[in-house]
Amino acid sequence: MKKAAVFLDRDGTLNIEKGYLFRLEDWEWIPGVLEAIVRINRMDLFAIVVTNQAGIARGYYSDAAVHELHQGVDQLLARAGARIDAYYYCPHHSKHGTVRDCACRKPSPGLLFQAQIDHEIDLSRSWLIGDKLSDVEAGFRAGVSPILVQTGYGEQESILADSSLRVETDVLSAVRYIESLQQ
């Protein structure tokens, strides 16, 4: 049986939204995130980050800077007894850079589909947690169950959300909800 995943948006969902974050010294966890990732790991679900990184297309930072940041985040997670299984990011932007039409920039589901292939994930039993409706749309398009959190842009975005969409205050409460369904 294929394993399920919890896909996690990064900026505004895991860390405080700061706009084009690429340095570890600027990283600041949203309260409860470390515990949430530990809980995902204990449920034996993949914990996979899917993030748009338009700062690359805009020339603000490089692919190497994103990889370096994620390596630093992995070290912070390890100290807390947690792990992210994989990171997928879209370096494109529709108005900047050389690629302006891609299948990986959320709300497109390309990052989720690539993770599905790489890790043999059962998308029908998987979740996506994010702070933007573009995250939610990517989740719907990939066939996973999305949850909008009210951190980052989520409080503003929840006003525009369909009433049937699951909305939680933060990642920890979203993961607790997922746990309640696993029992």
What is the overall pLDDT average? 95
Indicate the low-confidence ranges by residue numbers: none
The spatial strand order of the largest sheet comes to: 3-2-1-4-5-6
Q: Based on helices, strands and strand pairing, what is the structural class?
A: alpha/beta
CATH fold naming? Rossmann fold
| Radius of gyration over all CA atoms, rounded | 15 Å
**For the record, what CATH class applies?**
Alpha Beta
Find the CATH superfamily: HAD superfamily/HAD-like
Tally of DSSP helical segments: 7
Biggest sheet details: 6 strands, parallel
CATH architecture: 3-Layer(aba) Sandwich
SS strand fraction:
15-25%
For the termini, the CA-CA separation is 18 Å
Question: What's the order of the H and E elements?
Answer: EHEHHEHEHEHEH
Described by the principal axes of the CA atoms, the overall outline is globular
The figure for the number of domains is: 1
- Helix fraction bin: 25-40%
Number of strands: 6
